[in-house]
Amino acid sequence: LTVDLLSLSAACDALDQHNLKQNDQPMDILQIINCLTTIYDRLEQDHNNLVNVPLCVDMCLNWLLNVYDTGRTGRIRVLSFKTGVVSLCKAHLEDKYRYLFKQVASSTGFCDQRRLGLLLHDSIQIPRQLGEVASFGGSNIEPSVRSCFQFANNKPEIEAALFLDWMRLEPQSMVWLPVLHRVAAAETAKHQAKCNICKECPIIGFRYRSLKHFNYDICQSCFFSGRVAKGHKMHYPMVEYCTPTTSGEDVRDFAKVLKNKFRTKRYFAKHPRMGYLPVQTVLEGDNMET
């Protein structure tokens, strides 16, 4: 869809130009096409070899309807349009979080449970459309809303700073977005290390370094397909790198390996470490209106 070429400021300019301020208002297909045309006309000026305006508008319209208008009513909410475009655009992760939070916050900058539910509901539709929603805790967003407000000591409303702190823990329902950013960052990354399994050197893409054995690295294709070398178990801790390591990270990892050398197999089996904040998916309490 080439939305990865679109800066957040350019997206905001296009939205302002079309006066899309009322987030709960519906947009019809003509409004969606007009706004997408503005976005892609601007992108074509900077990337004319990558952007075919009629094709991109058609593809992006189709994607937005597949994600947010499963009943094909010909309408989606302005909030859904913004969530879809901004989630995939070119911007720092925290800038995206700030922008999306602002869309559901009140004029005083606070957000209640219902408004946060709207944002999480629209965000989870993207992995749902790809058939991946089960990995992110299912499409019921109520446990995620509860997780965020528990993190906020059950205040009735939260402010942006608290929302950002919660998002930095990578809650299960939203972890797909930072993962997408890491995948994009890793695509061209070259690591001066050799894969202990297939012997690829340098490792391109994601690098997985063992925190149990010294100088033990796995490339992404071996890691994703579950290959292991002799003496290395799947439950041993590893750290993922999407960009080349700094000397500080090398020293930190060395210290962790040293510590783990004295830990038993039973310790690792009993202390599995999740790289994200798990969200309980059990249906409890009243279902939240989305």
TrEMBL record:
Domain ZZ-type: residue ranges:
190-246
The way this protein sits in the membrane is described as: Peripheral membrane protein
A matching Pfam family = EF-hand_3
The gene that this protein is the product of is: Dmd_3
Which GO annotations describe the biological process of this protein? muscle cell development; neuron development; regulation of muscle system process; skeletal muscle tissue development; synaptic signaling
Task: For this UniProt record, give its keywords in alphabetical order, as a comma-separated list.
Answer: Cell membrane, Membrane, Metal-binding, Zinc, Zinc-finger
Q: Which GO terms describe its molecular function?
A: zinc ion binding
The answer to whether UniProt assigns keyword ATP-binding to this entry is no
Q: Does the keyword Cell membrane apply?
A: yes
Q: Which GO terms describe its cellular component?
A: sarcolemma; synapse
* Localisation per UniProt entry: Cell membrane
The family database entries (InterPro entries) matched by this protein are listed as: EF-hand-dom_pair (IPR011992), EF-hand_dom_typ1 (IPR015153), EF-hand_dom_typ2 (IPR015154), KCMF1/Dystrophin (IPR050774), Znf_ZZ (IPR000433), Znf_ZZ_sf (IPR043145)
Q: Give the top-rank taxon of the lineage listed in the UniProt record for this protein.
A: Eukaryota
Name this polypeptide is given: DMD protein
